[in-house]
Amino acid sequence: QVQLMESGGGLVQPGGSLRLSCAASEPTGRSYAIGWFRQAPGKEREFVAAIRFRDRMTYYSDSVKGRFTISRDSAKNTVNLQMGGLKPDDTAVYYCAAGLNLITTSMSTSRHYTYWGQGTQVTVSS
After folding, report:
1. Which of 88, 79, 75, 70 shows the shortest CA–CA distance to 117?
2. Do the bridges between strand 92-100 and strand 32-39 make them parallel or antiparallel, or are there none, so unpaired?
3. Distances 62 to 6, 8, 24, 25, 118 between C-alpha atoms, Å
4. What is the pLDDT of residue 26?
5. Which residue among 25, 37, 100, 126 is buried most deeply as judged by most CB within 10 Å?
6. What gap in Å lies between CA 59 and CA 51, rounded to an integer?
């Protein structure tokens, strides 16, 4: 069973940057995809970004496209989410999740992911 741990959250001013990391407890092979989701207080969990290992396909929500970049560091067995141009609306708990053999249309749907981290808080405020 893969265990995931997020890190890198914190408090940042609007317009600032943060890099989140998702570390897996064991090597995750080509069949995996890693997704980032977030949940703000009183709101449903929403998709942020995902990367599929077998073809390195990346996928972003419209709300973060052009501001966030997801990437994989296979040597460190981590997936990073570089966040820039942060806005107060980006404030949320950010979760990473791992799923197997995801097709493109499934990558943005949380129920297709099997393993989840505990989350890391990101607060964007002046």
Report:
1. 79
2. antiparallel
3. 23, 23, 27, 30, 25
4. 82
5. 37
6. 6
Phi and psi for 90 in degrees, rounded to 5? -85, -5
Q: What is the pLDDT of residues 28-42, one digit of tens each?
A: 788 999 999 999 999
The H-or-E segment that residue 22 falls in is: strand 18-24
For the segment 95-122, the average pLDDT, to the nearest whole number, is 95
Q: Which residue has the tokens 């749907």?
A: 109
* SS3 state of residue 15: coil
- Per-residue confidence (pLDDT) for residue 1, from 0 to 100: 84
Indicate whether 4 pLDDT > 80. yes
Q: Mean pLDDT across the chain, nearest whole number?
A: 95
Q: How many CB atoms lie within 10 A of CB 55?
A: 9
Strand partners, 34: 51, 98
Q: Rounded to the nearest 5°, which phi and psi values hold at 41?
A: -55, 130
Of the pLDDT bands very low, low, confident and very high (cuts 50, 70, 90), residue 12 is very high
Burial class (CB in 10 A: 0-12, 13-18, 19+), 16: middle
Nearest to 51 by CA among 2, 86, 97: 97
